[in-house]
Amino acid sequence: MTDTDPAQAHVCPMHGEQPSAHMPTLPRFADVGWILDTDSAQLIWFEPKRVKTIKPERMHAKSLARCPAVLDNDSRLFEVLCPFDLEIGFRRDKDGKPTLVNLLGDQSPVRSSKLGQLITLVSESEWANPARPVVQIITPYLVVTDEPVYVNQLPPFKHWRAKPLPGVMVCGRFPADIWPRHLMWAFEWYDTLQPISLRRGEPWWYLRFDHFDPSRPIRMIPAQMTEELREYMKGVRGVTNYVNQTYQLFQIAKERRPVCLLSPKIQRTPSTESAETQATIHAEAELIAAQLKAHPHL
């Protein structure tokens, strides 16, 4: 089975337009590429994976594992795992200035020199609440697509932690097709007496993509950085230093955007169909089966 029509392989899907009868038939999947934009320690960063669907082990017709709404939701979620172990505390120095403390000390897997480059305490004047510090970790993850797709960055709400984090993750949403930028993990620290504990391999955040056609499944594929993409990103980088409402720049970004920015690393063929594609197909099949069972006359 091929995912795209060979006759349309060279044509970029429509960009920011509403569907019409005159537009070419789109591929079955809407591809979103992920890139690790870093020259060092690439191996510590995990590949984004589809969130595992609940297995239908319970055969009851009303089982949670058979709910179409649950299956549909799970099929659209991707998770990014945390690449390091961190134990960060919050303190104020003798002058009252807020600071971060590496609570693992000499036992920390991350060198102190690298930790300062990795995690940032946002300026106190920019906190939403004076009692709740905000920390950020900028990552090398980029998402890029040639289709009108919005990316939502969400906390890993399906992952249960015995000891919850002492605050909430700051969520965000932006158009992935015209605003390629490094994803970051931002955290609003509600209980500063408790440390921020991150563990390598645990779900760090989720990605959910909104396409203009909700019926088309999203597939995340490894992509490569190109000179064209890097040049286009220069127009996006740093704009928040000059304007407050970046959404007002979206139309300008759309007008200046090259036709194609997504450059897949591997051309998928029937013989090299990945586990990601198989997982997408399996999720669709489970959803259809559940819908038919609930509505046998469809």
Question: What is the string of SSEs from the N terminus onward?
Answer: EEHEEEHEEEEEEEEEEHHH
Number of domains: 1
Gyration radius, in Å: 21 Å
User: What is the 3D form?
Assistant: globular
Structural class, by secondary structure, is: alpha+beta
| Helicity level | 10-25%
Number of separate strands: 15
Query: In what order do the strands lie side by side in the largest sheet?
Result: 2-3-14-9-11
Largest sheet: 5 strands, antiparallel
Oligomeric organization of the protein chains: single chain
Strand portion, in percent? 15-25%
Q: Give the mean pLDDT.
A: 83
User: Could you give the distance between the termini?
Assistant: 26 Å
| Total DSSP helices | 5
> Uncertain runs with pLDDT below 50, 5 residues or more?
1-11
Write a brief caption for the model.
The protein has five helices and 15 strands. It has 298 residues and is an alpha+beta fold.
Which characteristics define this entry?
disordered N terminus; single chain; 298 residues; globular; alpha+beta; 17% helix; five-stranded antiparallel beta sheet; 5 helices
